[in-house]
Design goal:
The complex is a heterodimer of chains A (147) and B (176).
Chain A (H helix, E strand, L loop, with lengths): L4 H23 L4 H41 L1 E16 L2 E12 L3 E10 L2 H4 L7 E7 L2 E7 L2
Antiparallel strand pairs in A: 1-2, 1-4, 2-3, 4-5
Helix pairs in contact in A: 1-2
Chain B lengths: L1 E2 L5 H5 L4 E2 L2 E7 L2 E12 L1 E11 L9 E6 L17 E2 L5 H6 E5 L5 H7 L2 H10 L5 E5 L2 E6 L6 H23 L1
Antiparallel strand pairs in B: 1-2, 3-4, 4-5, 5-10, 6-8, 6-9, 7-8, 9-10
Classes of the chains: A alpha+beta (147), B alpha+beta (176).
Chain lengths: 147, 176
């Protein structure tokens, strides 16, 4: 799992355009007030790009951890007990799932999980649906839900 | 007419997943399902011949498997930009890779997927599936499709047989 093209495009857009706002007015010798306004705007955009880079790094670390749990964890199941959504992110429902985890050698436990899902996936999250899950052997509360 | 609902990406793309006209019955190999036509308009109108069947047991093994013809325009709405929602399935078959883009959701059992895409199935997909064929398996719903504006009975029969073939292959792998 890695930063995809959309993420790269967002970072490049905010970073390069922001940098342009800072540098170009100075290079072309624009009026001081214009340099200040565009410079401030550009700095904000560069800060946004920096924030996106930090977020991408966080997501990358999270994905690496999930990969580790997937590769080394215990395979079990997660049964959907309740599913609902009251908000969307990028037109995709943010699903609130109540799950019963069945972890071989450990037992069952109940937990909640929030996942942003495409419409066709969210539509199938109904009580009784059994999904594969991988559990961290050292901490069964740390799990990857395969959906 | 069948309002299948948003069961797979193509059905979501079409709006309500309305298959019309639609006929329900045996598709072949003991597989029942619905066959018909699906259309949606996004700048221009796209028309498909589709066949829909259910394989509930597949969800526990592979919630999502998409085998879509290379070059087919699909809506790329599953990305935040910072999180992959699909994993590409690696296969050794150049012919298969040239003809299709195969994707699954992340963290699916790769051994099961490799067994599903056994050489005979890969060969069938690459060389014997109908022209323009694709399939989407999502949470037990299997939607097979061809890009055919006005399919004749022979083309629909080919699609039905192809759908039965894919469904039987997935069912057998679920049972093993």
């Amino acid at each position: 799992m890695q930063l995809n093209r959309v993420g790269i495009a967002l970072i490049a857009f905010f970073g390069l355009v922001g940098l342009g706002f800072v540098v170009v007015p100075v290079v072309v010798g624009a009026d001081g007030q214009i340099v200040a306004i565009l410079g401030l705007l550009g700095a904000i955009w560069v800060i946004v790009a920096g924030g996106l880079v930090l977020y991408a790094r966080h997501q990358r670390r999270k994905a690496a951890h999930q990969d580790e749990v997937f590769r080394t964890g215990i395979r079990g199941t997660a049964t959907v007990l309740e599913a609902g959504s009251n908000m969307t992110v990028n037109e995709m429902p943010m699903m609130n799932l109540r799950l019963e985890l069945d972890i071989p050698g450990v037992g069952t436990r109940r937990t909640s999980r929030r996942e942003v899902m495409p419409v066709f996936a969210a539509n199938r999250m109904a009580p009784g649906l059994v999904l594969p899950a991988y559990f961290n052997g050292a901490d069964p509360g740390d799990f990857v839900l395969v959906w | 007419m069948l309002d299948a609902g948003p069961l797979t990406p193509l059905l979501v793309e079409s709006g309500g997943g309305r298959i019309a006209p639609a006929a329900h019955g045996p598709l072949g190999d003991g597989v029942d399902g619905t066959i018909g036509q699906l259309a949606y308009t996004r700048n221009k109108t796209f028309r498909f011949a589709v066949a829909l069947t259910e394989i509930p047991a597949s969800t526990a093994f592979a919630p999502r498997v998409f085998c879509v013809r290379s070059g087919r325009s699909t809506r790329d709405d599953e990305f935040y930009g910072f999180e992959a929602r699909h994993s590409k399935l690696w296969t050794e078959s150049l012919a298969l890779n040239e003809r299709y883009r195969i994707a699954t959701s992340p963290f699916q059992d790769q051994n099961w997927l490799r067994q599903l895409f056994a050489p005979a199935f890969v060969h069938w997909l690459a060389d014997a599936a109908p022209p323009g064929f694709s399939f989407e398996l999502a949470y037990g719903a299997l939607l097979c499709s061809t890009e055919d504006d006005d399919p004749d009975p022979a083309a629909l029969a080919d699609l039905a047989a192809a759908t039965a073939h894919v469904a039987t292959r997935i069912r057998r792998e679920c049972e093993e």
